[in-house]
Amino acid sequence: MTPRGATGLQKAARRRVAVVGAGSWGTSFAKILGDAGCDVVMWARRPEVAREISVAKRNSSYLPGIILPLSVTATSDLHEAVAGASLVFLAVPAQTLRDNLRDIEASLDEGAALVSLMKGVEKGTNLRMSQVIEETLDFDPDRIAVISGPNLALEIAQEQPTAAVASSRNLELAQTVAMASATPYFKTFVNVDVIGTEFGGVLKNLIALAIGIVDGVGYGENTKASIITRGLVEMTDFAVAFGAETPTLQGLAGLGDLIATCQSPLSRNNTAGRLLGQGYNLDDVVAQMNQTAEGISSVAPVLALARSRGVDMPIVEQVSMVLQGTLSPKNLAPHLTTEDGVPQPESSDAIPVVKGWRRLFGSTKK
Ligand SMILES: NC(=O)c1ccc[n+]([C@@H]2O[C@H](COP(=O)([O-])OP(=O)(O)OC[C@H]3O[C@@H](n4cnc5c(N)ncnc54)[C@H](O)[C@@H]3O)[C@@H](O)[C@H]2O)c1
Ligand SMILES: O=P(O)(O)OC[C@H](O)CO
């Protein structure tokens, strides 16, 4: 036993962590980490944002009304933010991550771990964020983790009780990350299914775009429930084809995030979809959104990946067509039948006779 008075009653050393990106999720996550007892240095691109965070303990452009813990400071100097941090959390847009990583590489402490908070796929390479980290920095996957789940930034910053998943090939790292971010309002579970955890977050954005689109058209709950349910099938078929575990898609990083994002007006993907459904074109929508709606950039890479593994994604295909202006939003449907009208089985796994139908008439899985 540790003798009292030596280390037993001493407070554990505070963990120094960094958060790269001071948008809504980076700031909200910095608050979680500060509340969990870490010393947090954020990197903000704009010096005025860094100054507001450090001095006023606010980030009023992204999280109005939220006061940050005293243990959260910010800088616009990347080296200052990252050097000395044992955990570096990344919350930048998926399409800029590669460049941002190159900028932080020289400042990373030996042994530091990188944790992606992002939910996108890189255009051009079709890589998940953990893969971009591994490839760009030639980084050991055992030092990479991701966090995902039903995590709308503003709700968490308001300390509404929420759960998430920390995932890493290295279970010990996932546990370290979960403990570093444990607060009474934020509970993190762990798994080792990085593929399922990352793809869950990517794919729910695409289904949330579809939900926003039909919402903008004025369709009601039947349409939305049909899209959510069939959307989960598409998400699962896709992720499993790339090596994910089905339970991950049924958990917080899949179904949980799908529900939150499809239901909430706080979701930027849902909001972008709604604007499209109301008749705005993609350029107007992008111009109107001043925050990151990852789904818009992820549609093409996800469809390219789906085609490479023969996975059918009728809802995501239709979202892509609406984005391109080749499908009217009012024609986006959950595609409950095949094109020639032959009814498809809802599930291939439960009813053996239905498997026969699948063989006869084709399947969503090719
Ligand atoms: N907001 C949420 O509720 C939430 C929750 C979970 C995950 N995420 C994910 O977190 C990631 C970040 O999202 P967010 O909500 O914080 O977005 P955001 O739009 O609120 O903020 C993005 C941040 O990145 C910065 N940025 C823009 N271009 C940059 C560049 N070239 N280099 C570096 N930084 C740049 C912006 O200045 C801003 O600080 C996304 O992948 C998103 O899917 C968001
Ligand atoms: O605002 P969105 O659509 O990027 O969604 C935010 C989070 O991913 C919800 O978990």
TrEMBL record:
Keyword NAD found: yes
Compartment annotation: Cytoplasm
Catalytic residues (UniProt): K204
A single Gene Ontology CC term: cytosol
Pathway annotation from the record: Membrane lipid metabolism; glycerophospholipid metabolism
Any one GO MF annotation of this record: glycerol-3-phosphate dehydrogenase [NAD(P)+] activity
Main subcellular location: cytoplasm
Every Glycerol-3-phosphate dehydrogenase NAD-dependent N-terminal domain range: 17-173
Binding residues for substrate: K119, R268, N269
InterPro entries in the cross-refs: 6-PGluconate_DH-like_C_sf (IPR008927), 6PGD_dom2 (IPR013328), G3P_DH_NAD-dep (IPR006168), G3P_DH_NAD-dep_C (IPR006109), G3P_DH_NAD-dep_N (IPR011128), NAD(P)-bd_dom_sf (IPR036291)
Pfam families named in the record: NAD_Gly3P_dh_C, NAD_Gly3P_dh_N
UniProt-annotated binding residues for NADPH: S24, W25, R45, R46, Y62, K119, A153, R268, E294
Keywords: Cytoplasm, Lipid biosynthesis, Lipid metabolism, NAD, NADP, Nucleotide-binding, Oxidoreductase, Phospholipid biosynthesis, Phospholipid metabolism
EC numbers for this chain: 1.1.1.94
Chain residues that bind sn-glycerol 3-phosphate: K119, G149, K204, D257, S267, R268, N269
Catalytic activity: sn-glycerol 3-phosphate + NAD(+) = dihydroxyacetone phosphate + NADH + H(+); sn-glycerol 3-phosphate + NADP(+) = dihydroxyacetone phosphate + NADPH + H(+)
Presence of keyword Transcription regulation: no
Residue positions binding NAD(+): G21, A22, G23, S24, W25, G26, A153, R268
Similarity remark: Belongs to the NAD-dependent glycerol-3-phosphate dehydrogenase family.
Function: Catalyzes the reduction of the glycolytic intermediate dihydroxyacetone phosphate (DHAP) to sn-glycerol 3-phosphate (G3P), the key precursor for phospholipid synthesis.
HAMAP family (UniProt xref): NAD_Glyc3P_dehydrog
Protein name listed in UniProt: Glycerol-3-phosphate dehydrogenase [NAD(P)+]
Organism: Lysinibacter cavernae
Organism classification: Bacteria, Bacillati, Actinomycetota, Actinomycetes, Micrococcales
